[in-house]
Design a protein that fits this description.
The protein has helices at about 5-30, 40-60, 75-85, 90-110, 130-160, 175-180. It is mostly helical. The model is unreliable at about 170-184 (pLDDT under 50).
């Protein structure tokens, strides 16, 4: 196992804490709660999917292999994640998220050079491991904040802003996708 410096330890601990918070909240949340763009189920599905990808990529980096990167768009990959995990309970997906986080932590602790590029998708932005972890954490926190805000505000607020969405929201991931989804 590689000896990590204080900053690397902080980044791993911070990501682990954020994932733990997300798993606790999302694992017990109503899967149909929506922030207007994604439901809680959709968010948890894609977080599990991406954490599995992060582990696979990190394992390749530790072993000195070129990681196999997905070529689909983020929207396509997130939609595939929703389909893949559609039969899993929220609690089961939360457990998977925690499990993948534990594996990611173990793998990254074996990585000798945190300055190497840690890609997550073919054609995506290149970032070092040290820079990728805060990005992962920020992404998770962003989803949590949006869903928690939607939960606090309630269905009345949601319907005031999204009056055409009186049932479970489809899977738009960007504003441009939302327009396309409402035309279906």
């Amino acid at each position: 196992m590689t000896q990590l410096n204080v900053e690397q330890e902080k980044r791993l601990d911070s990501l682990a804490e954020t994932v733990s918070t997300a798993a606790a909240y999302l694992g017990q949340a109503d899967g149909c709660l929506s922030d207007g763009y994604q439901t809680t189920r959709q968010v948890l599905s894609h977080l599990v999917f991406w954490h599995r990808e992060y582990v696979s990529i990190a394992e390749s980096l530790v072993e000195g292999r070129q990681p196999i990167l997905r070529k689909e768009t983020y929207a396509e990959l997130n939609a595939a994640a929703v389909k893949e995990f559609e039969n899993k309970s929220m609690a089961d997906m939360a457990y998977l998220l925690l499990d993948y986080q534990a594996k990611l932590d173990q793998v990254l602790r074996r990585l000798p050079d945190w300055n190497i590029n840690y890609p997550v998708k073919y054609g995506g932005r290149l970032k070092s491991v040290a820079d990728r972890l805060p990005t992962m954490e920020s992404h998770i926190r962003h989803h949590l904040k949006r869903l928690q805000r939607a939960e606090r505000r309630g269905q009345g607020w949601f319907l005031a802003y999204f009056p055409d969405k009186d049932q479970e929201v489809e899977y738009p991931t960007k504003r441009s996708d939302k327009a396309a989804a409402t035309q279906r």
